[in-house]
């Protein structure tokens, strides 16, 4: 039976990042995933994701963003690939917007804020917009377009012989964690489970704390292409009613990529198809027409992504939609590195390094906010650790 120090189940952005970090540190690691890179399932396919340095979701994310930024730049220097394309990020909402206020507060802790602060100023600076003049606006100059496909290639470069393209099952034994595929068995000392929407199949009891949702994405032919060019038009997040719509400048010549950040209908992990419908993209289309008319237009392409998010925790204050990065309390040989969908991609370089730290250093502890014991089903005492 083949053996390894660390096995990784799931090689999306998080799992591939962990693989890269462990290979760079000389660890004996194998990664398992039945899907080919770029396959249109799960949560890590496609060309791009938003990188925001300042995040309205949590104050803790700014330091994590800085770590991720350093990781992306290091990955670029190692591989020679362009991973992070600089872009301003504009966030806008009605007067008193909590999103804008939280991002503005996070940015202010790092230095002065420049750029438009109202809808009127944003409309003047970026002619594609038609925001209400009294809206609140904040612009991050240090954001970017994370080239997700290029990042996946970079993470796996030089590690091709460590990747097993097969579905894997795991079984804890006294001798290690047995990993079984259709044609081989591997005994691993530790396992990192980064299986995205399939994570609950590997971690008993986790399913009741998770929700997998279908997220519709569209590319739109802009009415005024000259107003949405990369370098002149920002990444945007705008509130419209109870919805939050985000999008990119036309940096690929495919049109404006835009989608709702609101969670869509709940689905199973294999229910990612069929392609997005006009009805699913109705709110996105209406938002572009109303607030970004220069970017509005017919739908050119459609896609589906899956979000996998936590529900609210029941052992402490936690609004849900948060990461799980932790050792399994009842078996610390198993490290859970998921779910991270919805806002995790931009942090992948940092999270992969964090997970690698947990695998290589038994004394390393995860951030409190990401621990499993915020859920009652995983709140048992940890051997050798205080709670």
Features:
7-stranded mixed beta sheet, disordered C terminus, FAD/NAD(P)-binding domain, alpha/beta, 27% strand, 387 residues, D-Amino Acid Oxidase, Chain A, domain 2
Structure commentary:
The protein has seven helices and 18 strands. By secondary structure, the protein is α/β, with parallel strands linked by helices. It folds into two domains: 171 residues, FAD/NAD(P)-binding domain; 160 residues, D-Amino Acid Oxidase, Chain A, domain 2, CATH 3.30.9.10. The strands form three sheets. Strands 1, 2, 8, 9, 10, 11, 17 and 18 form an eight-stranded mixed sheet that branches. A hairpin with a 2-residue loop joins strand 9 and strand 10. The C terminus is likely disordered.
Quick structural summary:
The protein has 387 residues and is an alpha/beta fold. 21% of the residues lie in helices and 27% in strands. Strand 10 and strand 11 form a beta hairpin.
H/E series: EHEEHEEHHEEHEEEEEEEEHEEEH
The fraction of residues in strands falls at 25-35%
Mean pLDDT: 93
| CATH architecture grouping of the largest domain | 3-Layer(bba) Sandwich
CATH topology tier name of the largest domain = FAD/NAD(P)-binding domain
Distance between the termini: 37 Å
What sort of overall outline do the alpha carbons produce when their principal axes are compared? Answer: globular
**Quick one: how many beta strands?**
18
| Low-pLDDT segments | 381-387
CATH class of the largest domain: Alpha Beta
Task: State the helicity in percent bands.
Answer: 10-25%
Number of helices: 7
Largest sheet: 8 strands, mixed
CATH homologous superfamily grouping of the largest domain: FAD/NAD(P)-binding domain
Tell me the radius of gyration.
Answer: 21 Å
Number of domains: 2
Class from secondary-structure proportions: alpha/beta
